[in-house]
TrEMBL record:
Nucleotide-binding among keywords: yes
Annotated source species: Mucilaginibacter pedocola
Keywords: Flavoprotein, FMN, NADP, Nucleotide-binding, Oxidoreductase, RNA-binding, tRNA processing, tRNA-binding
NCBIfam families per the UniProt record, alphabetical: nifR3_yhdG
GO molecular-function terms, A-Z: flavin adenine dinucleotide binding; tRNA binding; tRNA dihydrouridine synthase activity
Record domain DUS-like FMN-binding: where: 16-318
Protein name: tRNA-dihydrouridine synthase
Domain of life, source organism: Bacteria
PANTHER family: TRNA-DIHYDROURIDINE(47) SYNTHASE [NAD(P)(+)]-LIKE (PTHR45846)
């Protein structure tokens, strides 16, 4: 049965790209979409930044037709500001609005936003209600199991947020105090999915890094879909690999050097189109080592790529990479 969020049809078992700060910008989303991501989100955007018209926050509202369906994710600690930010973000024309109640980093959580709202569920519910009422778009939420091991309250959160009108919930299988350490625990996600009161789609997130694990957890935890974050960094092929494994039970061939280079070029091209040549080249630098992770003796090329200042130089280095490894890894 197809998964629906409002009027959005996501197919039978959607794979979602997680919103990641400094990662899931339009160029990165483009290559993930090309490789099978069913739905994506912007980087999370500060409600305060949107209201103040901060350039960095406004730029994160950029979305393109090829990305649809896409959600804009916002976070904040002030209910009224979240309402205003929702109205601003809605005008950017996304397919849905998403609220971040999961971000564990200090700058966010210690300012009363992100995961810190797991310590004040009444406020979280009131904030969610304000966002739902401020937009005609479906509203979804991403959160964690709880603040720490003593307050795993996401079962209650799921029921109460559904009651105020959210259309889907993504749960990361860690508490805030775990940050990204340890192992994601999906058992509570499963309990929520099995709760007869819950009618909205439940997506699992955390530690999905291989087709086998995705297939195994799909059966074991019975979620409606999965959100993938860190495993997609430098490896957008994860989406197509998981889908292929679901369909056939077999592994897709790993991307060749030529494919890695190809995605690099596409990513760079999109980066320059979006931010201009100079900034586009600069921002691409943080991605090279991820795209060529595991390639032996790549350090010398990486150093060249992160210092190259023109497109011609970069293309020339990628050409050298192709020549060297196409023979070695064939």
């Amino acid at each position: 049965m197809a998964v629906q969020i409002g009027n959005i049809d996501l197919g039978e078992f959607p794979l979602l790209l997680a919103p990641m700060e400094d990662v899931s910008d339009p160029p990165f989303r483009y290559v993930c979409k090309q490789n099978g991501a069913d739905m994506m989100y912007t980087e999370f955007i500060s409600s305060e930044g949107l209201i103040r018209d901060a350039a960095k926050s406004i730029q994160k509202l950029d979305i393109f037709e090829y990305e649809r369906p896409i959600g804009i994710q916002i976070f904040g600690s002030d209910i009224e500001h979240m309402r205003e930010a929702t109205e601003i973000a809605t005008k950017a024309g996304p397919d849905l609005m998403d609220i971040n109640y999961g971000c564990p980093v200090k700058q966010v959580a210690c300012r009363g936003a992100g995961a810190s709202l797991l310590q004040d569920i009444d406020k979280m519910v009131a904030m969610t209600k304000a966002v739902v009422e401020a937009t005609h778009l479906p509203v979804t939420v991403k959160t964690r199991l709880g603040w720490d091991d003593n307050t795993k309250n996401v079962y209650e959160v799921a029921e109460r947020l559904q009651d105020v009108g959210i259309k889907a919930l993504t749960i990361h299988g860690r508490t805030r105090s775990q940050m990204y350490k340890g192992v994601a625990d999906w058992t509570l996600i499963h309990q929520i999915k099995k709760n007869p009161r819950i009618q909205i789609p439940i997506f699992g997130n955390g530690d999905i890094d291989s087709p086998e694990k995705a297939a195994e957890w799909r059966l074991q935890y019975e979620v409606d879909g999965m959100m993938i974050g860190r495993a997609a960094i430098g490896y957008p092929w994860i989406f197509r690999e998981i889908k292929h494994y679901f369909a056939t039970g077999e592994h897709l061939e790993k991307p060749t050097i030529a494919e890695r280079i190809d995605v690099c070029k596409t990513h760079l091209q999109k980066s320059m189109e979006w931010k201009g040549t100079r900034t586009g080249i600069f921002e691409m630098r943080r991605h090279y080592s991820n795209y060529f992770k595991g390639v032996p003796d790549f350090k010398e090329f990486r150093m060249k790529l992160v210092t190259a200042a023109t497109v011609e130089e970069i293309m020339d280095i990628l050409e050298q990479v192709d020549k060297k490894y196409a023979l070695e890894m064939a």
